[in-house]
Amino acid sequence: MTENQKPQPRLDLGLADPKSLATMVDASLKRGSSLSFALSDATVGVNLDNLGDWTITVGLSSRSDRFHQITSSLERLGFFQAAENEGTNYMLWTSILSGVGNDRIIAEQTLLLALKVLQSPGVPVYIM
Description:
The chain has about 130 residues and is an alpha+beta fold. Helices cover about 35% and strands about 25% of the residues. Strand 4 and strand 5 form a beta hairpin. Helix 1 packs across helix 4 (about 105-120). The longest helix has 17 residues, at about 105-120.
């Protein structure tokens, strides 16, 4: 890396931009389809079923040093722990449980907030 190069963020900042996110969802999701992508700490999936219900899945390694920080932040967004498989914990959010407003807008906002949680730097833990 030369002096003029800046380190690249773990996630393209355009992905966490609401307009970019909406464009990606528009281009990729039709009823009965899904999309997924991998991040350094997690995998994220978005599903739009045939009835129009949205589901966001986050798979996070239980060995991640940010595991507890991320899971508690996702729980505050309405995610719940759904399953564990071979060291990966899966958290879900579904529009069925949100019950307010436009499902698509709420799903996009929730996805955006979840991505911000996943790309935020870890908080150092200090022993007192």
